[in-house]
Amino acid sequence: MSSRWNGSTDQVVVCSRSALVELSAVLPAAGRFVVARLDGARMTDADHAFYEFSDALFFPGYFGWNWDALSDCLRDLNWLPADGYLIVVENAPRVLSSSVEDRHTLFRILSQAVHHWASPFGQPEFTVLLLCDRDDEAALLRQEIARADDGTPHRDGFADRRP
Question: What residue ranges are annotated as transmembrane (predicted)?
Answer without folding.
Answer: none
